[in-house]
Design brief:
This protein has four helices and six strands. The protein is α+β, with helices and mostly antiparallel strands. It has one domain: Maf protein (Alpha-Beta Complex), CATH 3.90.950. The protein is globular.
Length: about 140
C-alpha cells in the first residue's frame, strides 16, 4: 500500500511481478526520486524473513535500485541461502532431537536488512565515483 500511495508504484506492476521484484524496485527508485525532487532515488525491496519466502522468492532475496533520472540500475541479491544442514540436530533429554537455535532465528532479519542497506549505500558510492553505469540490471549473490 505504501509503495502505491507514497511512491506511486503502479498496482498492475505489483500484481504482475510481485512486491519483491526487479520491476517494483525500479518503480520505487524512480518514484522516490520524483517525489523528493532529487537527482538520485534509491530503493530496497525484499524478503527479510523469517517467514514469507517461497522456492521462487526465498528469504534473503533483495532487489536494490538506483535511479538517476535517465536510467535505473537494479541489482538482485540473495543475502541468505538458508541454514539447512549447517546446524545439526542435537540430542536432548530422552531420545528427542532438536535443531540448534540458529543465528537467523534470532538475528537473521536484522542481518538481511543491514546487508541490504550496506549494499544500497555501496551502490550509491560506486555511482558517485563513476565506477558503475546506470544502464543495466545485475545479479549478485
Amino acid at each position: 500500500e505504501l509503495k502505491e500511495k507514497l511512491l506511486e508504484v503502479p498496482p498492475d506492476i505489483m500484481i504482475r511481478y510481485g512486491q519483491v521484484s526487479e520491476q517494483v524496485a525500479r518503480a520505487m527508485a524512480e518514484g522516490v526520486r520524483k517525489k523528493c525532487f532529487s537527482n538520485i532515488g534509491l530503493s530496497i525491496t525484499g524478503i527479510a524473513g523469517p517467514g514469507g519466502g517461497s522456492p521462487e522468492k526465498p528469504v534473503g532475496l533483495v532487489y536494490i535500485a538506483l535511479a538517476d533520472g535517465e536510467n535505473t540500475l537494479v541489482q538482485k541479491h540473495q543475502l541468505h541461502q538458508g541454514n539447512q544442514g549447517k546446524y545439526p540436530l542435537k540430542p536432548l533429554k530422552g531420545n528427542t532431537l532438536k535443531r540448534k537455535s540458529t543465528l537467523f532465528d534470532k538475528q537473521g532479519r536484522q542481518i538481511i536488512r543491514l546487508r541490504s542497506a550496506r549494499r544500497t549505500l555501496n551502490m550509491l558510492r560506486l555511482y558517485l565515483l563513476n565506477l558503475i553505469q546506470v544502464n543495466e540490471t545485475k545479479n549478485k549473490q
